[in-house]
Amino acid sequence: MKFMKIGRKPDTFYTEEATRTVISDIPSDLTVRVNNVCFLLHKLQVPLVPKCGLLQRLCSDSDDSDIVTIDLHDVPGGEDAFELCAKFCYGITINLSAHNFVPAFCAAKFLRMTESIEKGNFVLKLEAFFNSCILEGWKDPIVTLQTTIKLPEWSENLGIIRKCIDSIVEKILTPTAKVSWSYTYTRPGYNKKQHQSVPKDWWTEDISDLDIDLFRCIITAVRSTYIPPPQLIGEALHVYACRWLPDTTKSRPPHSSGSQTEESKEKSRRILESIVSMIPADRSSVSIGFLLKLLSIANYLGASPVTKTELMRKAGLQFEEATVNDILFPSQLPTDQHYYDIDLVAAVLESYLVLWRRQSPAPAENGHLLRSIRKTGKLIDSYLQLVARDVNMPISKLVSLAEALPDVAREDHDGLYKAINIYLKEHPDVSKAEKKRLCRMLDCQKLSPEVRAHAVKNERLPLRTVVQVLFFEQESGSRATTHKPELTTRERQAPPEAEAEAKQECNNKLQHEGIKSRVPETSERDMQKRLEGMMVRGESEKGKERRREANSGSKVMDPKQVLQRRSSR
User: Fold this and answer.
1) Phi-psi category of residue 183: left, alpha or beta, with phi > 0 → left and psi -120 to 50 → alpha
2) Contact at 8 Å (CB) between 39 and 95?
3) Which residues does residue 39 pair with via DSSP β-bridges, in sequence order?
4) Phi-psi category of 35—alpha, beta or left, where left has phi over 0 and alpha has psi -120 to 50?
5) Cβ-based neighbour number of residue 432 at 10 Å
6) Helix H segments across 111-177?
7) How many C-beta neighbours within 10 Å does residue 518 have?
8) From first to last of its 569 residues, what are the pLDDT tens digits of the chain?
9) How far is 232 from 235, CA to CA, in rounded Å?
10) Burial (0-12, 13-18, 19+ Cβ within 10 Å), 77
11) Please, is 34 exposed, middle or buried when counting C-beta atoms within 10 Å of its C-beta (0-12, 13-18, 19+)?
């Protein structure tokens, strides 16, 4: 940071309540009121009036012996800026820097402390400091630009904003090999001593201190001067968002109706909408994780529908690139009892599916689209396994998200089965109807042998689901034996006692579980016939099955044993 010292005399200004006085043997004959502060000064004994064209004009009608009172309530920078100008006239030492340059320069211009009034005046010295020190540095023009937000019109008219922006952009466009000034770069894991080369995004943290409108001016100027890599602009937006927007990824933010909180939210909404509007069209410019964070923040802040729609569209384009951690957000609605924001994931998934279906009428025939939807399917199933642990997660939301995926998205249903099993384990009080609704999503034919073996022993599952798994298990075994030597007639036959016992046991269990009263008669009769056939085959082919188990390592459960185990418990 550059400084300039002007004047040699010690500071003789002192403040008493709302009055600022210069210690002097000469009585004050000039009172200047700036806002609520009175300055007791001297007209001619010190070169105050001679250096200020405005004061000369205001005091022109008074005699030298008169005590003059002047009101200057509209001086830019207020009483502090006027005091700097007054100290300059008294020859008192003042220190100028990027922090106080703007109010001092605007006040000096207002008081007309120019060369036409007196040589070597304040405006000339300030301009020299601005051009030779502030604009030549890196952080100085950024600090100066930030101070212009208090005096935007004056700063714009005097060219301060334009010159600062030009200086900053010029340095951003400097090749990294020629960057010799100090900059802020605090990325996790980055060590300047270990990296001799300057990173391409070295400038992003320093300009993130700027107000959003000034930040936009910088980004716009950079993009209009040359075509930067979209990822570089995206990184600048990411750094700025982390600097100014609330973090909604760790916990649910407090919801308050206080005016100060609402004012802060309004400012954050303006920042968010500006950032979204600046995201480059290139889909690789920002990560899917960043887009989803912005969407979560938008829900919390109550951003405009246009902003949310744009974020969903962009997130839908990149959703297949997401990880589970990218989509784990706490809900931002105070009315939600569940922790995770499953509605956000469902909305982005719907946006992705709309785009996915639009690309091809037959996505299964397109290798890229098939890989994309399969990857998304695994992502959703992994997400379901995590949110299923939420004790307050409604089963309807879990089912809705799981069923949103088309059939082709799941090559197998192992991940979906794990999510269902976790939900049933964490929600032991779920009703039978809800269990059936949950398990209705499963396609037993898409379960791996290991998962089927677990399912037939899983007492949390409805009997209907277990029976379906057993049906497929026996049918798979039957298909496997058709390619082997035929069994003898004696082996195929089963004792009538075993058939009758299995039939009666199946009837008792179905009635106990309540299936008999809920499924149509034709459906139940078909299930009974198929189960009877399975049990007969199971008795006669037990020896064959044991030999196949030794070879394949996959055990096919005997339906009779499964039903006996469930009935006994």
Assistant:
1) beta
2) no
3) 20, 32
4) left
5) 14
6) 122-129, 139-147, 152-157, 160-172
7) 13
8) 889 999 999 998 988 888 999 888 888 889 999 999 999 998 876 778 899 999 999 887 777 667 889 999 899 999 999 999 999 999 999 999 999 999 999 999 999 999 999 999 999 999 999 999 999 999 999 999 999 999 999 999 999 999 999 999 999 999 999 999 999 998 876 666 566 689 999 999 999 999 999 999 999 999 998 888 999 999 999 999 999 999 888 766 555 544 448 889 999 999 999 999 999 999 889 999 999 999 999 999 999 999 999 999 999 999 999 999 999 999 877 767 788 999 999 999 999 999 998 886 665 567 888 999 999 999 999 999 999 999 999 999 999 999 999 999 999 999 999 999 999 999 999 999 999 999 999 998 899 989 988 988 888 888 888 888 888 877 766 555 555 444 333 333 334 444 444 344 444 444 444 433 333 433 444 554 555 454 444 444 444 444 444 444 444 455 555 555 555 55
9) 5
10) buried
11) buried
Tokens 């466009």 -> residue: 173
CA nearest to 467, candidates 329, 352, 560 = 560
Three-state DSSP class for residue 430? coil
Structure tokens at 373: 């939807």
| 52: β partners | none
Residue (of 387, 380, 417) closest to 402 by Cα position? 380
Residues ≥6 apart with Cβ < 8 Å to 479? none
- Output the CA angle 411-345-311, nearest 5 degrees: 120
d(CA 36, CA 108): 20
Residue with tokens 């250096």: 51
Of 257, 333, 348, 346, the closest CA to residue 302 belongs to 333
Predicted model pTM: 0.80
Q: What is the C-alpha separation between 90 and 486, in angstroms, rounded? A: 117
Q: To which residue do tokens 């034709």 refer? A: 522
- Rounded to whole angstroms, the Cα distance separating 382 from 45 reads 82
Cα separation values, 447 from 418, 452, 458, 463, Å: 11, 6, 14, 17
If phi > 0 it is left, if psi is from -120 to 50 it is alpha, else beta; for residue 189 that is left
Please state the φ and ψ torsions of residue 331, each to the nearest 5 degrees.
-65, 140
3-state helix, strand, coil split of the chain in percent (to 5) is 60, 5, 35
CA distance 297 to 300: 5
Burial class (CB in 10 A: 0-12, 13-18, 19+), 184: middle
List the structure tokens of 149. 């937000």
Tell me the pairing of strands 94-97 and 3-6.
antiparallel
Instruction: Please say whether the beta carbons of 140 and 118 come within 8 A.
Output: no
Q: Which amino acid belongs to residue 464? A: R
Residues 83 and 87: their CA atoms lie apart, in Å, by: 6
Structure tokens at 309: 């729609």
Region of 561 on the Ramachandran plot (φ > 0 left; ψ -120 to 50 alpha; else beta): alpha
| Residue 242: count of CB within 10 angstroms of its CB | 13
SS3 category, 121: coil
